[in-house]
Amino acid sequence: MVKTLNFLIRRKLLASIVLLGVARSITLGAAAATKVGTPRKILVFGGSGQLGSQIVRALLAAGHDVTVFIRPTSDRSRLANLTVHYVEGDVTVEADVRRAMQATRFDVVIDALGRSGANVSFFAVSGTHIAKWAAATGVRQLILHSSVGTGQSKDAYPSERYVAMRALFAAKETGENAVIGSGVTYTIIRNAVLRDPPDDVPERARLVNDQHVYGSVSRRGLARLTASCIDEPSCRNEIFHAIDDTLPVLR
Ligand SMILES: NC(=O)c1ccc[n+]([C@@H]2O[C@H](COP(=O)([O-])OP(=O)(O)OC[C@H]3O[C@@H](n4cnc5c(N)ncnc54)[C@H](OP(=O)(O)O)[C@@H]3O)[C@@H](O)[C@H]2O)c1
After folding, report:
1. Is 51 in the pocket of ligand 1 (CB under 6 A)?
2. Of the residues 41, 92, 185, 215, which has the maximum number of CB atoms within 10 A of its CB?
């Protein structure tokens, strides 16, 4: 009787562990629509760029109040006719980042920056400034777009191209670590290959916890997933890789 009971308890325990494992691998999937929740004040770095502007659109569609951090020289055409606020500055200048983040109390900050020029240290400097002032100004959630190849995802990156990318990934790792160490609830979303199918082709982007995953994803998909992570408990303090299995992978 005791033996049977022990067996049943062990089996239940095993089932719970398996279930926990499954739950851990469940992520925001392709079907997850942008959730309309509490409107948040959101600051987007890189919001005028190819990825950032799609994120801005997804955030506006979800009812958020969006401010774009922008250089005076930035091309604003991707944001034409959108109801957004602007704050001007250069992210590599810490005083500009501080001023932008002290001007308004932002709930969420999103970093969708792309490198300006050839200087790879850009990602270390920008990530460090953003993380520091997000923490200092009481930001509640920080979402950073990063690259597969960074940190523990080194092995996922094609080895023949890794050496050429090493300095970039090191700079991105510094940025990621600044975000993780800031104490602000963070979500890091890494992409490997960006491919943008025509607008009428549905995207099936999803986020996975597995840092060995390498695949393609569209900016449209990344934008939807970013908006889906606002206030989403399963995105808290997570590093994700974003992939869309319907897109071909170029290694
Ligand atoms: N894996 C891939 O295939 C792949 C390919 C491309 C990009 N990516 C990654 O995807 C992400 C976004 O790329 P994207 O294509 O959207 O880039 P993008 O179109 O070049 O946009 C970059 C954005 O960052 C802004 N920015 C650059 N330097 C700045 C500065 N000093 N101060 C303030 N803003 C600045 C740009 O503004 P300005 O107009 O003023 O420059 C622009 O809004 C990046 O993390 C990038 O590394 C991956």
Report:
1. yes
2. 215
Choosing from 44, 69, 74, 86 the residue with most ligand 1 atoms within 8 A of its CB, the one to mutate for a pocket test is 74
Could you identify the atom of ligand 1 that is nearest to the CA of residue 117? Answer: 28
For the chain, which domains are there? 2-243 (3.40.50.720)
CA-nearest residue, atom 21 of ligand 1: 49
- CA–centroid distance, residue 15 to ligand 1 (Å): 45
User: Helix/strand/coil (H, E, C) string of the chain?
Assistant: CHHHHHHHHHHHHHHHHHHHHHHHHCCCCCCCCCCCCCCCEEEEECCCCHHHHHHHHHHHHCCCEEEEEECCCCCCHHHCCCCCEEEECCCCCHHHHHHHHHHCCCCEEEECCCCCCCCCCHHHHHHHHHHHHHHHCCCCEEEEEEEECEHHHHHHCCHHHHHHHHHHHHHHHHHHHHHHHCCCEEEEEEECEECCCCCCCCCCCEEECCCCCCCEECHHHHHHHHHHCCCCHHHCCEEEEEECCCCCCCC
Q: For residue 69, what pLDDT is reported? A: 98
Could you tell me the mean pLDDT of each successive run of 10 residues in the chain, 251 residues long? 42 39 46 69 98 98 98 97 97 98 97 85 97 98 98 95 95 98 98 94 96 97 98 98 92 61
